[in-house]
Amino acid sequence: MPLRAIDIFTGKKLEDIVPLLHNCDVPHVNRTDYQLIDISEDGFVSLLTENGNTKDDLRLPTDDTLLAQVKDGFAEGKDLVLSVMSAMGEEQICGIKDIGPK
């Protein structure tokens, strides 16, 4: 039986042939919102967590549209919340919300 999937981080289509009664592991996917604090010159973002700490290990998104929204909104001084998707040890910015001017 063909098994088809789309990588949630790259959008790449994947396909595999597996027996009909074969068990398949399913990843646990989390989506967390963080407030954007800063963007470094080397392309990393500084995010504010719920408990008041900072998260500084994520790069700007690779999607051109989302990247432009983040950079433009930050340059305009908007208060932005970034949605981060995580699964199987990977994390990536996948969405943005404008919550008003700073």
From TrEMBL:
Keyword Protein biosynthesis tagged? yes
Q: Please tell me whether the keyword Disulfide bond is annotated for this protein.
A: no
**What superkingdom does the record give?**
Eukaryota
Q: What does this protein do?
A: Translation factor that promotes translation elongation and termination, particularly upon ribosome stalling at specific amino acid sequence contexts. Binds between the exit (E) and peptidyl (P) site of the ribosome and promotes rescue of stalled ribosome: specifically required for efficient translation of polyproline-containing peptides as well as other motifs that stall the ribosome. Acts as a ribosome quality control (RQC) cofactor by joining the RQC complex to facilitate peptidyl transfer during CAT tailing step.
The name this protein carries in UniProt is: Eukaryotic translation initiation factor
List the lineage, top down.
Answer: Eukaryota, Viridiplantae, Streptophyta, Embryophyta, Tracheophyta
| Molecular function GO labels | translation initiation factor activity
Alphabetical UniProt keywords: Initiation factor, Protein biosynthesis
| One Pfam family linked to the record | eIF-5a
The Translation initiation factor 5A C-terminal domain is annotated at 28-97
The organism of origin for this protein: Datura stramonium (Jimsonweed)
Q: Which SMART domains match?
A: eIF-5a
